[in-house]
Amino acid sequence: xxxxxxxxFFLLLAGMLMDxxxxxxxxxxxxxxxxxxxxxxxxxxxxxxxxxxxxxxxYAHTGPKGDWVFHLAxxxxxxxxxxxxxxxxxxxxxxxxxxxxDERIPMDRPMWMAELRVARTFHASPQVDGxxxxxxxxLGWTANRPQGFAPVGQMACAxxxxxxxxxxxxxxxxxNAEFSLTLxxxxxxxxxxxSVSVPGxxxxxxxxxxxxxxxxxxWQLFQAxxxxxxxxxxxxxFAIGLGLYIGYLNDAERDILDHPAELRLxxxxxxxxxxxxxxxx
Length: 281
Hints:
Radius of gyration: 21 Å
CATH topology: Lipocalin
CATH architecture: Beta Barrel
Oligomer: single chain
Number of domains: 1
Number of strands: 13
Number of helices: 3
Largest sheet: 10 strands, antiparallel, barrel
Mean pLDDT: 78
CATH superfamily: OPCA outer membrane adhesin/invasin
Helix content: 10-25%
């Protein structure tokens, strides 16, 4: 999984650098802090919290009718329960002689997440200096991978989203608000490497779907995201800013025997942003 993500990262970065020469657009680096609240009934009733340090890279190619936006992000942190003050839990183990002993299992565990997103936006009306509404589709892929015993909130999800946004520019100041809603999703709760080892599967694709991976419509998997950003133009090339992201995912509607669900994720993220414009506007 690490090798796949790193390969995608370097391929996308190389493509962005090759395409950047002579183009109009920008690069944006976004370090931030991400807080994730998780309730995973597949593992238990406890609510867990993950605090992640996150780094994102965005490349946008701007045009008269709309923009192409490519985004990559990676984060690492610690996942811990919030519903109880206990740092460990007792796990029953059956011994060879038939007796049962309780082994103390740490509940704090490392966690990483990765995100890849490509959006194509269109201007709803002719824009002047970047002001106006825009809309468009987006393809996204997100993976959460806690380490250790009983992974809480573990999932990988590919989505097709619809988004709508509004940009406002006044002098050196720029404000952007964007809302997106998942229209269809492909989610799995098991790592692909684990699903490949399921007996009786003839290939990776069949084992991928046998592990509980299913398509989900909006009324089955609800996911919405709100992204608010402010930027201050330092010069024709550089800008700095802040961003606030709020996201919610509810997978509780597909709690069936072959696909244990009841997963809820709530994101809050605060980011700083450093933007480099490829051409002076």
